[in-house]
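Need the bound structure for coenzyme A, inputs here:
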Amino acid sequence: MSQVLTFCVQPQVQLRFLCPDDIEQVKKLCTEWFPIDYPDAWYQEITSNSKFYSLAATYHSRIIGFIVSEIKLISNMNKEDCDILASFYPDTAQAAYILSLGVVEDYRKHGIGILRKYADLS
Ligand SMILES: CC(C)(COP(=O)(O)OP(=O)(O)OC[C@H]1O[C@@H](n2cnc3c(N)ncnc32)[C@H](O)[C@@H]1OP(=O)(O)O)[C@@H](O)C(=O)NCCC(=O)NCCS
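Answer from helper R.:
Posting the output first, comments after.
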């Protein structure tokens, strides 16, 4: 998974998958953004287990934001999570369950959180 994508409007901001080499940067950012002390095993998992869809936004190679999500079958999700989805989705559909999302403070409000105008990842 070595794809790197470039934002159409911000060519220096790129998207790539997280990898184990990112753990220290990701830990530091999580500590800044979230009041949760994730165990080391979690960082290992989100950067190496393909069940997670973990993307970093980078600017001149520095991580300035990331999203960690898990692709789940709707039939395997908790009822309270299913309840916020539109009812027309079949149980066989998949949903991205977002575990973490953050953007470095100085780079917020530039469309990075919503991946505004980004290229398709397929
Ligand atoms: C939430 C966050 C990721 C947004 O990143 P960003 O790059 O500034 O977002 P964007 O510039 O792409 O803005 C996207 C939209 O999200 C909205 N938004 C920002 N923070 C929000 C929040 N806490 N709740 C709801 N909407 C929010 C913005 O108003 C904007 O909407 P608009 O385009 O209609 O004006 C960023 O503020 C952040 O890292 N916050 C700290 C960590 C956090 O709270 N993460 C979310 C919980 S896991």
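Comments: The radius of gyration is 15 Å. The helical segments are 23-33, 40-48, 79-82.
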